[in-house]
Amino acid sequence: MITDEVKLDKYSVGVGDRFAHQAKAQLQACVLAGRAGVDVIPVWNKSNREHNIIGSEPAETRAAVDAAVKVLGWKKPHFCDADHINLTTVERFLAPCDFFTIDVADAIGQSATKSSIDAFVKQRAGLECKLQLEGVDEAFEITPELLRGTAAKFLFAVQEAGKVYRRIESAKGRGRFIAEVSMDETDAAQTPAELLIILAAIADEGIPVQTIAPKFTGRFNKGVDYVGNVEQFRREITLDVAAIAWAVKNFGLPENLKLSVHSGSDKFSIYAAIHEATKRQGVHLKTAGTTWLEEIIGLAEAGGDGLALAKEIYAEAYAHREELCGPYATVIDIDPGKLPDPAAVARWTSEQYTSALRHDPRSKKYNSSFRQLLHVGFKIAAKMGRRYLELLEVNEAVIAKNVTENLFDRHIAPVFLGKKTR
């Protein structure tokens, strides 16, 4: 049995905090979850790319988290996630982090050696059968061709994950951190049968993975709702959860292994499906960027200098939209024709700005293109340095209210409590 002493609870939420100012407000949302009857463990995630853009260090995220935990008297587990790391980026995260999202998407499709593929196929020949997973009506068959083809596509990636895991283990000690393997940032979704074979390879590699992040069909664009067939997603996640349960029983993986849903912010149309499918095993919902948008909403709502700065950030993002959108081209869908002219935005009231930006699909004033451009525009605020941070501090109360309500009402309540998004 592969075990891990530090265990992630059934329900957990990954929260991004670009500028390390909203940890207390985010944690307050988890406090509200506890009062509502469910423990949701916070995991603060920030990637190497985001640190580089902001000019921050992982130790700053840890310091902000520790301060929030102390102020609110949080006694339950909490973690800092080295988000989407690999061998070239892991070092700076080793000391301050205790959750590691090992991203091997770039290695998918690179073939392992023929001898290692042959060895894996021989060892896992027992998977070549028709499987009826518990709790689902649908069965699927793993043929010899599927087993070998999946190994050819994914085994090298799993081996790379093993190298990263062992580097972390050598620094942190076995059982002293949470390991996740992420395969979501790739072109094609993995089928439940492929996921099962991947989990067999992860077990053989000796990685005590506690969360696994596959790619689902459909578009998981940044900060906006899911684009795709909701019923197809429901089928996929139900089968994936069943495959994970089967893998836990048969591969010796940690008993608390669960799905991690990446780019989970604001995917309102699939939250009911996630809730229903994961009530038994749990889920890690990873959000990022939505808190940064709530900061902008809070500044605009505050009026005065806050609103003026929010308008300036949009104008700069509009002027540099190609540069800002380039790195996120696969996870945003902006209609240039729906982006308001900065000159018009400059005349907006607080209500006009916040209504366009706040993610309320029922509102005719909501503008998803406006929201997506600002979602990737945090680099503009980063360049403002202390000017931006000082306004966050001056307007902390109104910003914190927006951050907490957004995380609890629109994310935690529907995913973990099964309530409709407000």
Describe the protein's architecture and organization:
The chain is of the alpha/beta class and 422 residues long. It has two domains: 11-288, Alpha-Beta Barrel (TIM Barrel); 291-406, no CATH class. The chain is 50% helix and 11% strand. It has helices at residues 23-35, 48-54, 58-72, 114-123, 144-172, 192-204, 230-251, 271-278, 290-302, 304-319, 321-325, 342-345, 350-357, 368-375, 378-384, 386-394, 396-417; strands spanning 11-15, 41-47, 79-85, 99-103, 130-132, 139-141, 178-182, 211-213, 258-261, 283-286. Strand 5 (130-132) and strand 6 (139-141) form a beta hairpin. Helix 9 packs across helix 10 (304-319). The chain is globular.
